Amino acid sequence: MSMVERILFWMAIIVLIIGIFGMKADISNLEKQLQQTVQASSEGGEE
Amino acid sequence: MNPKIERLIYISVIVVLSFVLLSFGKKDIQLRKQIPVTAEELYKKLGNPKINLQVIDVRPYEVSEEEEDEAEETDYYTGVHIPGAIPFPDCDESKTPEEALPQINPYLPTVIVSKDGDPEIFKKCAEKFPFAQNLKGGMVAWDEEGYPEDEGEYTPPSAGGGGGCL
């Protein structure tokens, strides 16, 4: 396997890892928002 | 190491990572569907030409003359609607004006506008739009916030027209 091929594989792996971390951060942010929305709507329902 | 085995290892790592990324993507879409967008957020998004967003109005398109006096303007599309919103009453093609049908793109990020943000109608529409979000409070909330509105029949955008609609 050539060095160029190896570098391309590593680049793909790194891009995917960065994508996964980005997506994970986005998901945890959305989960927080969802929690806040649920909390707000349940508080609104109690009033 | 045998080059074939090394290549196979790299490819399997890439496949596994791609699956993880895909599953995260699916989860992200599902979470977004559960979080309604507020009128203020929608207004900001519509004002940003970089954001490609489709607004689908699922209220009745118009009301009969007898009902017009009793109905509020926020009850139906021709009464009042968000500028650029595409009418798609009850998410039913048979109730939709012909000129609006070709404008509906199920694969665009979409905001569903009902009268009051009814989650039931949103659920029904979310099956047709994979990237849909509900407008919290619906058209009533948009109207109360005093954001720009259009009234009258739907006119499709002219070819070549672009930019934000607000």
List keywords for this structure.
heterodimer; A: 47 residues; mainly alpha; 94% helix; 0% strand; rod-shaped; B: 166 residues; alpha/beta; four-stranded parallel sheet; 8% strand; elongated
Question: Short summary of the structure?
Answer:
The complex is a heterodimer of chains A (47) and B (166). Chain A has 47 residues and is mainly alpha-helical.
Structure summary, number of beta strands of chain B: 4
Q: Would you tell me the structural class of the helices and strands of chain A?
A: mainly alpha
What is Rg of chain B? 20 Å
SSE sequence of chain B, one letter per element: HHEHEEHEH
Considering DSSP H and I runs of 4 or more, what fraction of the residues of chain A is helical? Answer: over 70%
Approximately how much beta-strand content do the residues of chain B carry? 5-15%
> Could you give a short account of the major beta sheet of chain A?
none
CA(first)-CA(last) distance of chain A? 67 Å
What is the radius of gyration of chain A?
20 Å
> Which structural class matches the secondary elements of chain B?
alpha/beta
> Which percent bin holds the helix content of chain B?
25-40%
Rounded mean pLDDT score of chain B: 88
For the secondary structure, the number of strands of chain A is 0
Q: Give the mean pLDDT of chain A.
A: 88
Described by the principal axes of the CA atoms, the overall outline of chain B is elongated
Give the number of helices of chain B. Answer: 5
Low-confidence residue ranges of chain B: none
